[in-house]
Amino acid sequence: MSQFTSSFWDYYIGVISVVSILACGVLLLAQSKRRVAGGQTETTGHTWDEDLGEYNNPLPRWWMWLFWITIVFSLVYLALYPGLGSFAGYLKWTQVGQLEQENAQANAQFGPLYEKFAGQEVAQLAKNPEALAIGQKLFLNTCAQCHASDAAGSRGFPNLTDTDWLYGGDPATIKATITEGRNGIMPPFGPALGEQGTKDVAHYVMSLSGMAADSIRVERGKPLFAQTCAACHGAQGKGNPQLGAPNLSDKTWLYGAGETTIIETITRGRNNQMPAHKELLTASKIHLLTAYVYSLSQK
Amino acid sequence: MKTSDAPAGLVEQSLYEVRKTIHPRAVHGWFAAWRWALVWATQLVFYGTPWLQWNERQAVHFDIVHRKFYIFGLVFWPQDIIYLTVLLIISALSLFLFTAVAGRLWCGFACPQTVYTEIFLWIERKIEGDRAARMRLDAAPLSARKVGLRAAKHAVWIALALWTGFTFVGYVTPIRELWQEVVTLSTGPWETFWILFYGFATYGNAGWMREQVCKYMCPYARFQSAMFDKDTLIITYDRERGEPRGKGEGKGHCVDCSICVQVCPTGIDIRDGLQYECIGCAACIDGCNQVMEKVGYPKGLIRYSTTHAMEEKLTRAQMFKRALRPRVLLYSAILGGIVVAAGVSLWQRVPLKVDVIRDRAAIAREVEGGQIENVYRLQIMNTAEEERNYYVVVSGLPGIHMTSQSQFELDGASSRMVTVRVRIGPGAAQPGTHPIQFQVSAVGIAGVEVREKSVFIVR
Question: Is any Cβ of chain A less than 8 angstroms from the Cβ of B3?
């Protein structure tokens, strides 16, 4: 990077640019007139291949003015905009500055649209079709990539249209989830439980939600569950919304039901992340988004 | 000879030339009448069209902001860009065909540059007089009369130019609203800019630049000569009949009156043969024919003819027969084919468009009872101008069905994004991707339906 930190190259580029532009002007001047012997005005005087001449078919003079205009334009441009090495130009224009300006403009234009709803309760907004239409657009842009366009989720991404919530489905919690994000970590227990132990716990977990399970393994798994899993998932496996630990006794399975998946989850753990959106969306947009997500389970 | 041995006489010579104003003389006749007919036809269409109404909206409205082009009963969406391509191809092929048959017909009769120059020249003639009067006025010293005439001319030019700019913008912004804005001086910044821009372009090109546009700016002017051949009808001076020029015994029919030069809008002498400056307006034909009539010679000393016809002294019948040569037939066949195809395509156009976008990250999910569910977004575009109901049917796998809403109401010329859930029963398909089809149909209107392909994923 040293070649970019030296100011030599700034001058190098600046000087070449300015000299080139001025050279265009000199060339234009030099080529606009010539001296010929009186009367000998038929050809340009250029001769190729010994005797091949060129008739003088002059361009109109306004054409020459176009050349001058481009030269003046380029000098004015280089004075106003960045182009000469590290010289920022008198307008101080930057790409980032333009982006910020356009963002500010857009916020000034569209901000009131969101602000209108900022003072209203989420539960109230969840019944307001106008707010929900905006909320849906925000959802499709920001959330649908993982939670699917219909918000019913996918493997590893929670369904937002049911009443089963990992962290709680009240407006304040939904808003906190969107704003701050969530880190749902289930540590791996494969090494601690061993292969048979893992399978025993898996069968006990299956029995909690009424799935068919090996009753001997269920019996052996029960104390292991109490030791290893109950701290987060609770003694009855009902989960803990404080930690985002899922309820294991219902029919909702984030990664899918079945022995294989449950064993995989226990053995290797799960690391689930919902990114924080406070940097990406304004508070009033998150408010509308909360209302939309909240409305999905209010049926 | 004598200049070469006079080294003392060095003179400074500019390699750029100061433009000499051309003052074409007014001309009447068959071709002038045609030119005026085309001026009227094109300008009535241009100035008049935006004022027409259709379905309670402007009949021809290029609504760039909402990305919809309304042309009478048709509404074009950005997806219809192919029709613009087809239009450009038709224009190009027409140019090839007309040029191969009769030279620069477009330039001489229909090009806006010619048409507006014609109108501006007419205004100039009405105010300042014909060629001789204008040349006298140019040479005259500054006087109240000169200033008055010039001011009047430019005022009328600018008024017409601004009206042209206003009309141009009226195709993009509804012209009746634009008129209200103009009257109340409340046009938006861009409307103002474009009215002035197109106004200035009209005033500058038709008032000041004129033949300079054709000679130095226009690319078509230069490459049209590549489409000429020896059987192309061009404006030709019959040298054999005309020469030697002059009046009296032993002279040809050309009386050297220089009318053909005086009427020429690009200031050339057609008697020097075909030149790139010649825009094919045929003013010299009309001018010469008038003179021939007066002096009692047959008309047509300058006429539409071909190089072959002049060289081989073909009769007119022979000459016109050669117009049907392979290149002309080929151009005609391709042009005809494309016009018919475009016409049929427009006729059969279904006023409905559908895009299917499958959810990308949420690939497939297992729902109650082991059913597999995929989610799609359907962008339904109702390009008809009335409100319509559409229903969606999915097919392609055994037992495939939608579990979400399947009927949707759309306003006229609007689009709507809908999310649909599609399910199959457990084990109905192997893991992998399976082609499926969405069919979107208008409720109660036969034939208005679109099929779109997508895939269903089982994992």
Answer: yes
Q: How many CB pairs under 8 A join A and B?
A: 103
pLDDT, averaged per 10 consecutive residues of chain B (459 residues), comes to 48 80 92 95 96 92 92 90 94 93 92 95 95 93 94 97 97 95 93 96 95 91 87 93 86 92 94 92 95 92 93 90 91 96 92 92 82 93 92 94 92 91 91 95 91 93
The owner of tokens 């408010």 is A287
d(CA B142, CA B130): 19
**Would the CB atoms of B363 and A37 count as touching at under 8 Å?**
no
ipTM here: 0.76
CA separation for the pair A24, A28 (Å, rounded): 6
The single-letter DSSP state of residue B25 is P
Q: Say if the Cβ atoms of A256 and B366 lie within 8 Å.
A: yes
Token readout for B137 is 């006025």
DSSP lists the bridge partners of residue B16 as: A59
Q: Do A140 and B376 touch (CB under 8 A)?
A: no
H or E element in which residue A25 lies: helix A8-32
Q: What domains lie within chain B, and their CATH numbers?
A: 30-225 (no CATH), 226-335 (no CATH), 352-458 (2.60.40.10)
What are chain A's domains? 2-31+45-95 (no CATH), 184-274 (1.10.760.10)
Residue B61 structure tokens: 């409205």
